[in-house]
Design a protein that fits this description.
This protein is mostly helical and 92 residues long. The chain has one domain. It is 46% helix and 0% strand. It has 3 helices and no strands. The longest helix is centred in the middle third of the chain and has 21 residues. It is elongated, with a radius of gyration of 17 Å.
Length: 92
């Protein structure tokens, strides 16, 4: 799809309906997106797991905490709510 001034609204609607990723904070699809999300979410989960098992007293994920993702929607480069995933692990 060629995006031009005349069809930008249609393009944004296409993004929203196809990928559920468009809102006021653009979250682009890019090569390596799954790996990117897996790494920062996995790091938060690993930190929470280590805290639960008592193998560490402090866990910091400098790449995590992109916490404005919603339950069913990405927001501004935030694809996965890794904080909630870590909290769920801590609640075990």
């Amino acid at each position: 799809m060629l995006v031009m001034i005349g069809n930008i609204i249609i393009f944004f609607l296409h993004l929203k309906l196809t990928f559920n990723i468009w809102n006021s904070n653009f979250s682009p699809v890019f090569d390596g997106l799954f790996d990117f999300c897996s790494m920062y979410t996995g790091a938060s989960l690993e930190g929470a797991t280590k805290l639960n098992h008592g193998s560490t007293d402090i866990a910091i994920n400098w790449s995590g905490g992109l916490h404005h993702a919603k339950k069913f929607e990405a927001s501004g480069f935030c694809y996965v709510n890794d904080i909630v995933i870590a909290i769920l692990e801590l609640l075990k």
